[in-house]
Fold this sequence. Notes:
single chain; alpha+beta; Adenine-n6-DNA-methyltransferase TaqI, Chain A, domain 2; five-stranded mixed beta sheet; elongated
Amino acid sequence: MENRLPNGWCATCLDQVSDWGSGGTPSRKNASYFSGNIPWIKTGELTGKYINDTEEKISIEALKKSSAKLFPAGSIGIAMYGATIGKLSIFQVEAATNQACAVASPFQNILFNEFLYYYLLSERRALINSGKGGAQPNISQGLLKDWPIWLPPFNEQKRIVAKIEELFSELDKGIESLQTAREQLKVYRQAVLKHAFEGKLTEQWRKDNADKLESPEQLLARIQQERDTRYQQQLEDWKAALKEWEANGKEGKKPGKPKEFLRQGEVDSGSQLVFDIPDEWKFELIGNIFSVHVGATPSRKNNQFWNGDISWVSSGEVAFGEIHVTNETITHAGYENTSTEIHPEGTVLLAMIGEGKTRGQAAILRISAAHNQNTAAVRVSEVGLPPEYIYYFLLYQYEQTRRVGSGNNQKALNKNRVASIQFPFCSAEEQIAVVQALSEKLSSIESVNQELEIQLTKAETLRQSILKKAFSGQLVPQDSNDEPASELLARIQAEKAALSAKAKKTPAKRARKAKEVSE
């Protein structure tokens, strides 16, 4: 390793070039401990390069009565564990920290604190991967102290930092432009969806096909007639299945009588739409057109219910896309012992529960599948309409759908609220035309978005490349006039040795004086 070091650099470890410590949390039972003016840093506050203020401040008494310590301005804090593991900041003020924060105070004129900041930033992933612990990695102080570093001359450290910041500044401008473009693309996508469901995207198509279109009322009547015919056939099939079940000695699960379609849902302020639509369209409730179902989960205590040949969808898999395969499957025994149903391809699933992004997301089944109780199934293809139309509408109304959830602790949709979602209803032919127009435009938007994501990934890769070059001596040229890092280290070691020797002599002097006094 030594023979690959740039001229003037030396290999050492972080413990040799900085003091390390960690903090603590004063007892919250004593309110006076948190009424002082000493900044007290929690790892959640290590969010940027610098930190100069804190949410909480502690008193001098709190420092004395706890393991919290005061670190000088210029120190660097790094989160040792938890959600913020590896995050770091430079203290611009004297501050104490909690116990989840390790703090480095670089030796003056040996290690430039901003050089250490960028070095730790470049090593963050490696530190996390090296951290001990099972489910929760832990970057210990011991690991940090022993972590290797190639140390350049002090002046070169400053030149390296200046070059990093110059390149990062240019890079950040490019990233900002890409992120702005990505946000503008989201706005454009929403505008396209808005035009589609206001009838503007198919305005010319509607004029060209005015004499061929069913009115919403005619379409509803046709759907109901077809549904009645289908129900009568289901009744005949059920009667035949029931006779066969009885003839076989009533073995197995009794065939269930098919349920006649009942309109569901009600218009309320939470789901009512307020935008204009063409005269040829009308607003309808999802539950007035389609059957809505809620799933169930077979008992996980019974292994015989799982890993069968029936696809089973969990709410986490409902994430604005198509479902061609599921993470889990259930057996026929699992299906028969729970209230879940198997839905046909073309069913639209809607996630009903989840405080994160899950609630309100939709997906189209491209296979027949059952599902859990946290999702609703809207059987769109059952009535011969394109499932993509409802899917795209739910994509457009994502935020609105999330808002109509109920519940105190965690908002959730339910079967009635899903059935009560209002949507613009038009002829089957125009629904197909809307889907085709949207598919083309959204495909183009997605292509641009993917390219932006690729460029953003490349930008972050370039950032890591800059850091890698910086800490291997390839970012700025070496200067032979700089004092070699090895001499800096030698000076530090000499100072440490002198301090150690002085500390050893002091007790002996005191002992001699004590002896003289006693004589």
